[in-house]
Amino acid sequence: MSGARLVESPLIASSAVLEAIAREVGTPCYVYSAPMIRERFRALAGAFARTGYPHALHYAMKANSALAVVALLRGEGAMVDANSIGEIDVALRAGYAPRDVVFTGVGKARHELERAVALGLKAINAESAGELDRIDAIAQAAGVRARVALRVNPDVDAQSHPHISTGLKKNKFGVALDDAAEILRARRDRPGLAIVGIHVHVGSQVTTLEPFRKAAERVAALAAALHDGGLPLDHLDLGGGLGIPYENGTVPSFDEYAALLVEIARPTGLALIVEPGRSVVGQAGLLLARVVDVKPHAGAGRFVILDAGMTELMRPALYGAYHRIVPVHETTRPVVTCDVVGPVCESSDTFGRARELPEPAVDDLLAILDAGAYGAVMASAYNRRPLPPEVLVEEDGTWRVIRRRTTIDDLLALEQI
Ligand code: LLP
Question: What is this structure's pTM?
Fold first, then answer.
């Protein structure tokens, strides 16, 4: 199976491979395509390489931090954006060096800052003046200088779902653009700080270039003003990457995205950092589930109840997110209207309403597509359901379990009466 063919197919592995995985590993189960992840990362890296401009691609681990996925991307030359000490630990165990890591997060606990400072990361993206002061104090006590960037809030509408838009004034992230220069100037001589960059992130599932353009222009202007005022930086970190087409419509190409960011960064002369997550892994994963029941819908059509639910893939319940749902095996059954739902006792536990599917039957395998990003990482054990296993499929159709399903013993090992 060639990488190119995998991308064109709605399923990221053959029906036979998915059937074998379902039989041997059980369902629900996440399945990722290693060649598709590589292909997406290479396409992104190629787009930035073609600009000839200095840059670093820091994969946003929050999208999918499976150890094997993070290690695979390291093999491709990725660096990482981590959002907690837990993610930093995963990165270190996957072989990344502290200098490969930028550390973002709106509420970093003191122990997280202490560890981050001790490790000597590429940059801690500080979210407030107070956080810069805490980093300074921790670094001075340790006798080191911490590399920091300041996250600014550019007041730009990402035009994404409100829950994942982060760049508006009313959002909790960063410091106001107008305050940033003063905050940094007042701290330029702190012995514990090396001020190396400006960070901005306007939101996720961004499907037009305009929000990226506005945010980049605002931080580039800030960086230029800081430079003129005698505070030179090393880099501009322009945050998360492009969205993906979950339903209809298109998104800008990696080339358009890279060219735009570089065009804006170039006059500053500063190296560019981006932190893409979804666009690297989103389309390279699916959630494999089995039909456990079918029953009439009082409205129209039928309910198709899966063994996967909001516990495995929370995006539809949390954001009303759309994910395509397709049968794993081709069939000639008539197409019927279905509400595809999970087993959790909440009506929000619904993957899709009024979907047209070849008449599903109990024990059929269905695939919920584009689940490689913000899927397994957001799974929960609500209802004492096990966390789902994750499987990585290689180019030749061979596959391996990269995380096993948790057992009730795993869960209860943490508890006592
Ligand atoms: N950098 C920062 C600082 C971020 O907060 C994020 C995502 C990224 C990078 C990666 O953005 P991406 O390239 O994936 O768009 N759970 C939500 C998405 C939350 C995203 C949070 N931040 C979902 O399922 O859609």
Answer: 0.96
CA separation for the pair 35, 57 (Å, rounded): 19
Mutate to test the pocket of ligand 1, among 204, 236, 247, 315 (most ligand atoms within 8 A of CB): 204
- In degrees, rounded to 5, the angle at the alpha carbon of residue 382 between the alpha carbons of residues 245 and 276 is 30
Q: Which of 4, 298, 345, 414 is catalytic?
A: 345
| Cross-strand pairs, 339 | 303
- Residue ranges of alpha helices (H) inside 152-208 are 177-185
* 345 catalytically annotated: yes
pLDDT per position as a tens digit, 312-356 = 999 999 999 999 999 999 899 999 999 999 999 999 999 999 999
Cα 380 from Cα 410, distance rounded (Å): 14
CB distance 315 to 323 below 8 Å: yes
What is the 325 CA–ligand 1 centroid distance (Å)? 23
CA-based R_g, the chain, Å: 23
